[in-house]
Structures are given as structure tokens and as C-alpha cells.
Specification:
about 170 residues; 2 helices; about 15% helix; elongated; binds zinc ion
């Protein structure tokens, strides 16, 4: 969806709000396509002293297979939008900010939502950020149960331990 900004482009202080939904079901992570539900985005573009600043949020529920523990999961994802819209991608002045060019006097919401989403997703798909994964020895899902396998001692600590025992 294109969001027309002609009303605020030359009018400091003015703003336009938007809601849209974007289909990102073609995004592939490993062998899976976890963004099966449409991605909802809402926010505001405000002319802040002549600079067009877009703020808002992107929300969806992803359905995937965890890279670490291999279980199916679904997880709500919410990502904030905070980008600057410019008429031309002129130079590298704004290296610290996410800058998107306008299409004429419109913002390409599909492109912005897709980019913000992709840049915020981890390359690994995890059921939760601190997924403990599977034990590499016994294969138990360590989120559900602990196992009695001894953790391999780091060789450096092993050497230190020997020293201390002397
Ligand atoms: Zn997991
Ligand atoms: Zn184990």
C-alpha cells in the first residue's frame, strides 16, 4: 500500500496515520515459511521540523520450527517502526537512522514493513529467545526436563582445576 504524504510534506507539525496489513508468507527461514499470518502495521508519519518521521508497530504471530529444540511453536512478534522518509537517498548523512526513499510523495508501506520485519528478525528461528535446546548427548529437550549428562569441562577450566588441586 502507498501512503500519500502530499498533505504533510510541506507542513511542519502535520501528521498522517496509517494501518495496513502485509503478506510476508514468502519469507523463508531455513526450510520453513513461518510468517503464515498477515502482518499488521500501524503508525504515524509526522513532519518534524521538515523531516518526515515514521513511528509505529508491526505485529504478527509466527509459526515455526525451533532451530535449537526442533519443536513447533508459535510466537507473537511485535517490532517498533522508527524510520525517516526522504525524497531522495542523497548521501550518507543519516548512517545511524533507517532511511527510506519516497515514491513520489508517497511512502511504500509494504516495502518499509517488510524491511523493518526482516532486519529485526533473528537469523535463527527460536521458540523463545532463551531456548535451552536439546542435550547433545541424550537428546532430551532441556526446556522440558533436565538431564544428568555431565557438561563437558572447558579444557582451560580443567587445567585451572588441576592447578588448584595441587
Ligand atoms: Zn526451542
Ligand atoms: Zn543429556
Amino acid at each position: 500500500m502507498l501512503l500519500g504524504l502530499s498533505k504533510i510534506i510541506d507542513c511542519p507539525g502535520a501528521s498522517v496515520s496509517f494501518t495496513t496489513s502485509v503478506d510476508l508468507s514468502d519469507l523463508q527461514y531455513g526450510n520453513t515459511y513461518p510468517v503464515t499470518e498477515s502482518v499488521q502495521a500501524e503508525g504515524t508519519v509526522r513532519n518534524t521540523a521538515g523531516v518526515l518521521v515514521m513511528t509505529g508497530a508491526v505485529r504478527t504471530t509466527i509459526h515455526g520450527v525451533c532451530d535449537r529444540c526442533a519443536s513447533d511453536f508459535h510466537r507473537d512478534v511485535e517490532i517498533s517502526i522508527d524510520v525517516v522518509l526522504v525524497t531522495e537517498l542523497a548521501n550518507e548523512e543519516n548512517e545511524d537512522e533507517w532511511v527510506f526513499p519516497l515514491e513520489g510523495d508517497s511512502a511504500d508501506l509494504d516495502d518499509i514493513v517488510r524491511t523493518v520485519f526482516v532486519l529485526n528478525m533473528d537469523s535463527k528461528l527460536l521458540c523463545k529467545p532463551d531456548c535451552k535446546g536439546l542435550c547433545c548427548r541424550c537428546g532430551k529437550n532441556l526446556n522440558q526436563e533436565s538431564c544428568t549428562c555431565q557438561k563437558e569441562l572447558d579444557p582451560r577450566f580443567a587445567a585451572l582445576k588441576q592447578l588448584l588441586e595441587k
